Amino acid sequence: MKRTRKAEILRAVEILRRGGLVAFPTETVYGLGADAHNAQAVARIFEAKRRPPNHPVIVHMSDAGQMERFARDIPSVAWRLARRFWPGPLTLILRRALDLPDAVTGGHDTVGLRVPAHSWALALLKAFGGGVAAPSANPFGGISPTTAAHVMAGLGQAVDLVIDGGPCVVGLESTILDLSTDTPRLLRPGAITADTLANVLGIAIARRISASSPAPGSLPSHYAPKTALQLADRPFPEWSQLPFPLAVMAFHPPPKGIAPRYWVMMPQIASLYGRDLYARLREIDRWGCRLILVERPPHTSEWEAVHDRLMRAAGLGHLL
Ligand code: TXA
Ligand code: MG
Fold first, then answer.
1. CATH: 3.50.50.60, 2.40.30.20, 3.90.1600.10, 3.90.870.10. Which one for 5-207?
2. Helix or strand or coil: residue 155?
3. Could you read off the pLDDT of 135-170 as tens digits, one per residue?
4. Residue of 173, 185, 209 with the most ligand 1 atoms within 8 Å of its CB, for mutation
5. In the chain, N or C terminus with fewer CB closer than 10 Å?
6. What is the pTM of this model?
7. Residues near ligand 1 (Cβ within 6 A)
């Protein structure tokens, strides 16, 4: 019998209160949640993901009003962006509140905060009342999960409860904007583009300064499928030059004479491409191909997040 939402949320809250792990859906990807104020519970996240301890995790809140519980010296731009984009796929990096466990912040003086736009996530956060520290619910270095089945496949027994809220509608991790210094800086592109943020703030958004900080997103191979992936512009290389079996993710159908077995047509709309990307990569990973050839998307602002994840999947670092 299907449990009612209320019962499921109560069970999840109980697990969080006693220091357990709850995987839950957000609009971006599934998160692996623990009570942000319980250092031991947060340590369990790192164990389950096999994630290095110096990588900070995002604290999820039910509303912007909770920002003051987790951050200090909050600049007015943070309130403005929170009003405009929360709940939504935007993470703000602020100076941390001093009573937060170091495990959450990776020992840094900053904390990442976000209010997710998903009814299950918000119901859980409201009922729990506190902050929920949650990285993406996948083993470290792998592809983020966009369904409950992905979470089970990657973490399974390590999680006390997986809340199934269906497939994520955004499908790529949140935009991360660092507001802990005087210059707002984009640390990870996402569905809310740098252009959109710049328009709202009326100032330019700086980009990440090389890979100096130990954010997992800054590791070139993060989000990588197991199969080698290469980006290509059209016209594609000569077929005879390519390793087979070959998988192709393209905006156009296969040319005549090419067996379309491993040919995946991708949406031409950035948001839909982003929604489908990780599920597609997981599927292709199971085919045992020698290479995934991906048709390079356009270089416009709305495609930046997709581009960034494809570059990482190719092991080429990111565009920032
Ligand atoms: O969409 C998302 O952001 C998802 C959902 C679950 O909310 N979460 C997510 O978490 O992608 P995770 O841990 O996989 O990626 C969080 C990124 C990491 O690159 C981490 O280094 C960065 O956020 N981050 C977190 N706190 C930070 C901080 N204080 N300073 C710099 N980067 C931080
Ligand atoms: Mg992640």
1. 3.90.870.10
2. coil
3. 999 999 999 999 999 999 999 999 999 999 999 999
4. 173
5. N
6. 0.95
7. 26, 28-29, 31, 55-58, 91, 93, 105, 108, 110-112, 114, 116, 134-136, 173-174, 176, 187, 215-217
